[in-house]
Each structure stands twice: as structure tokens, then as C-alpha cells.
């Protein structure tokens, strides 16, 4: 089981995210503690919020008083709703939240059913709960629950090549719902600092995003439009405005995500795992195919951006265990695009620029082509990459002068 703790300042945001799953038939409330209920035992947003108000009103100093916890058993762990409720309660008791108001939601929108728990980090007197060694205590609680309920340990889950969720399947229909599930999850769980990095992450799951800018009634407009991709990487079906999905995946939410990600990654510690794996792998001078395959075994996806001459001018890594997306140059010059171009130059003349994360590569993204992925990269604002492409094109021009 994987446990993840997020803290924030918006109770409404945490509750509405989970309530949306309930309203869409993709989730349910399994258990609640110290939450006002309707006469029939059901819940509603009004009473849910009211139950937390005394704690938040008493809070004076804690800037982020809301806690949003996810507990993720392995798909092979077959658990009843009663067992899931018990697991959630025991985890909250161990973490010191047993006397707090909290709601336990079961999400059923993914093949991997999982729990979300919303609570507050201040008591009824407004005093902050003890969060010392919180990560260490969470690990201890997780391991005890794994042993008690015979769950697959988190370590073994991390050794799997499976993506956190499945890519878009056009045959399943309801594209909007699929796109919504993917975008909500990725924005919530991953760190990325640019639209290009976000787009690279989306492409693993058969989705792309474009920025739309203009003026409406003399006011500047900046929005996002999402599209599903077919097996060739081409946009298909009708594009979907972010506003039709949720405000959690719109341009304002994305800008906030860039800022929070920059802050979270400023010490660059999250890059260390990928950096260590790359350093070891590059010493072996691997072929491009072997390089991508070995990274996939370690839960890392890689995107190479190439121009028409197959010159690699950009490389982006996605570490699915650390949940981070970043350009190679952020780790140092030894991981820049030029290094990989020189390494793979002639012997690996592959026509495609994207090697998707195993095991869905053959099913969702055949190696024959990438289709519109390179074109979609140009819709972002990575001017350095665009300028490099233009410089390469200018080198092709013949010198002007009279014909002899």
C-alpha cells in the first residue's frame, strides 16, 4: 500500500474534489468521524463543511490547516469496503487524527481502487496537531497495516513497470471522463514547471493540451484545451475546454502548480534518483533502445525532441516514483540534449521521438510513428527549443549570389 500526505489551505477544494467523484458515480463515502449527517445517515457538502468550521475558526497561526491523505492498495489486494474503512480508521488513529473530524472516500474511477481522507491539522482549540516525523510515522503505520491485512508492500509496488493508471482507450468511449480522470490525477500527484513538461506527461496517457490566448470583450483570455490522441499520436475526437472538465485543470490551476512545483523542487533532491540511474547507465554507452528500456524498468519515462535532421535538441525525464518531470539540463550539462545526440547519433536513426513507458507501448503507441507530437510541442512557450530548431533550418539555406 502506498500512503501519501498532502497539506493545504482550502477545505472546500479538498471536499469538492472528492464530492465530484461521488456525484459522477466514481466514488463513495465509506466512513466519517465527527461529521454531521442527514437523518438517513447520508452526507452533504453543507454539513461536511459545517463539521470542520469550529476547528478552522479557532485556528490562528497554521497557514495550511487542511490535510488530504491518499491510501493506495495494490490492485491485486482484494479488500471489502469494511476492510478499507478499518484500514483508514487505524491509519488515522496511528497518525494522531483519531479524534479529528474526517471523511473517508473510496475512489473507483481507476482500476486501482483507493482511498482519500480529508481532515484538519488543528484541534478544536485551534492548536496545531503534532506533525513531527510525520513521514516516518506514516511509513510505520503503513507497514503495520500491510502486515495485518496481508497487503502487497509499497516497495514491491514500486518495482512494477505499471503506470499509475491506464492511458486513454478510444474504444471505451466517454472521452471527457477519461481525460478528466487523467488530468485530475496528474496535476494533483506530479511536479512539473512548464506547459511542455505537463504536455510530455499527458502524452504518456494519450492526451495533449494546447494553450488558447486572445481577447473576449476587450479582456485578455488565457485558456487550455485538451485532446485525446490516437495510436499514431494524432489528435482525435472533439477538443475539450478545461472549463468543461473542472477548474482544477485550467490555466490558473496550472500556473499555481508551476509555482508550487518550483518551490518543491528547488533543492533538486527529487532528481537524485534519476541522476544516479543515468550516470550508471551512460557508462555502458547503451543504444537508444536499450537506454529507454532500462529506464522503464526503473520507472522512468524519457522524451527526446528532434528536428527534421534527427538532431536531438531536447530531453525530458519523468520519474514516476518521485512523481517529477524535468529537462535533463536541470541535472547538469552531462545530461543535456547534446550528450544524448552524440551518444545515439548515427547508429540509432529512429524515426520516432517518443518512447512511452512500458508496458503500454505496443498497445497504445506503436513504434512506427509519433504523428503530431512534435507539432504539439511547438504550441508551448519553450522559446529556446524553437530558436534552436530555427537555427538548424537556417543552416540549410544556400548562400545568395549570382549563378555561374
Textual characterization of the structure:
- The chain has 404 residues and is α+β, with helices and mostly antiparallel strands.
- The chain is 37% helix and 21% strand.
- It has 14 helices and twelve strands.
- The protein has helices at residues 11-23, 45-58, 81-94, 134-148, 154-158, 175-189, 195-204, 251-264, 272-282, 288-297, 337-344, 361-364, 373-377, 383-394; strands at residues 2-8, 27-33, 66-72, 102-107, 114-120, 207-216, 219-229, 235-241, 300-306, 312-319, 324-327, 354-355.
- The strands form three sheets. Strands 1-3-5-4-2 form a five-stranded antiparallel β-sheet, with helices on both faces. The chain has a four-stranded antiparallel β-sheet with strand order 11-10-9-12, sandwiched between helices.
- A hairpin with a 5-residue loop joins strand 7 (219-229) and strand 8.
- Helix 3 (81-94) runs antiparallel to helix 4 (134-148).
- It is globular, with a radius of gyration of 23 Å.
Amino acid at each position: 500500500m502506498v500512503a501519501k500526505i498532502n497539506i493545504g489551505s482550502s477545505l472546500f477544494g479538498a471536499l469538492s474534489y472528492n464530492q465530484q467523484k461521488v456525484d459522477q458515480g466514481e466514488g463513495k463515502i465509506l466512513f466519517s468521524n465527527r461529521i454531521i449527517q442527514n437523518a438517513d445517515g447520508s452526507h452533504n457538502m453543507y454539513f461536511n463543511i459545517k463539521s470542520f468550521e469550529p476547528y478552522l475558526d479557532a485556528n490562528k497561526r497554521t497557514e495550511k490547516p487542511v490535510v488530504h491523505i491518499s491510501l493506495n492498495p495494490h490492485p491485486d489486494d482484494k479488500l471489502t469496503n469494511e476492510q478499507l474503512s478499518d484500514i483508514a480508521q487505524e491509519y488515522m488513529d496511528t497518525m494522531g487524527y483519531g479524534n479529528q473530524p474526517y471523511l473517508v472516500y473510496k475512489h473507483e474511477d481507476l482500476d486501482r481502487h483507493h482511498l482519500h481522507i480529508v481532515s484538519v491539522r488543528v484541534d478544536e482549540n485551534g492548536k496545531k496537531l503534532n506533525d513531527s516525523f510525520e513521514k516516518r510515522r506514516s511509513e510505520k503505520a503503513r507497514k503495520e497495516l500491510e502486515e495485518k491485512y496481508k497487503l502487497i508492500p509499497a516497495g514491491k509496488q514500486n518495482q512494477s513497470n505499471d503506470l499509475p493508471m491506464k492511458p486513454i482507450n478510444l474504444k471505451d468511449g466517454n472521452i471527457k471522463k477519461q481525460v478528466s480522470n487523467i488530468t485530475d490525477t496528474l496535476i494533483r500527484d506530479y511536479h512539473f514547471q512548464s506547459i511542455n513538461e505537463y504536455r510530455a506527461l499527458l502524452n504518456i496517457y494519450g492526451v495533449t493540451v494546447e494553450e488558447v490566448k486572445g481577447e473576449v470583450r476587450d479582456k485578455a483570455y488565457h485558456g487550455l484545451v485538451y485532446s485525446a490522441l490516437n495510436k499514431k499520436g494524432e489528435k482525435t475526437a472533439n477538443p475539450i475546454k478545461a472549463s468543461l472538465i473542472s477548474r482544477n485543470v485550467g490555466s490558473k490551476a496550472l500556473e499555481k502548480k508551476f509555482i508550487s512545483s518550483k518551490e518543491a523542487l528547488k533543492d533538486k533532491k527529487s532528481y537524485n534518483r534519476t541522476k544516479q540511474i543515468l550516470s550508471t547507465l551512460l557508462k555502458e554507452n547503451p543504444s537508444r533502445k536499450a537506454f529507454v528500456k532500462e529506464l522503464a524498468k526503473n520507472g522512468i519515462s524519457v522524451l527526446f525532441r528532434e528536428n527534421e535532421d534527427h538532431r536531438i535538441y531536447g530531453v525530458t525525464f519523468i520519474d514516476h516514483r518521485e512523481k517529477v518531470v524535468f529537462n535533463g539540463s536541470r541535472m547538469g550539462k552531462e545530461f543535456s540534449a547534446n550528450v544524448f545526440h552524440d551518444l545515439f547519433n548515427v547508429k540509432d536513426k529512429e524515426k520516432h521521438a517518443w518512447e512511452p513507458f512500458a508496458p503500454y507501448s505496443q498497445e497504445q503507441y506503436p513504434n512506427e510513428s509519433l504523428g503530431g507530437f512534435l507539432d504539439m510541442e511547438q504550441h508551448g512557450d519553450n522559446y529556446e527549443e524553437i530558436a534552436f530548431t530555427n537555427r538548424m533550418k537556417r543552416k540549410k539555406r544556400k548562400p545568395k549570389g549570382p549563378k555561374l
